[in-house]
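2024-03-11 09:14:02 DEBUG pipeline.ingest accepted 1 chain
2024-03-11 09:14:02 DEBUG pipeline.ingest length=92
2024-03-11 09:14:03 DEBUG pipeline.predict start
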Amino acid sequence: MKSLLDPFVDSTQGVETESRETFERLWRELDQRDQLKEEADNRKGLWLECNGELVDSGAVKMLGERRSGLGVKLVEFVCPFCKQRHESIRFG
């Protein structure tokens, strides 16, 4: 039986395996995050602050998008009912 300190024991194989598994897990998590982001971007509904209704994003005049302090994408638009500027996240 060889000691762990024996210079002939290849200890790099375990490190390489752990590194590969870690990077594979990170790539999976990044792919999942990108997929969720794409799904969120494809949502069509917007919430109207003035009356609480959901409307299709095609029914409003879009002014732009911005990220909140928490990283949530908010859509700025002109409400078709009250003609005021509103912000909303997109709903599916």
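2024-03-11 09:14:41 DEBUG pipeline.report The longest helix spans residues 12-41.
2024-03-11 09:14:41 DEBUG pipeline.predict end
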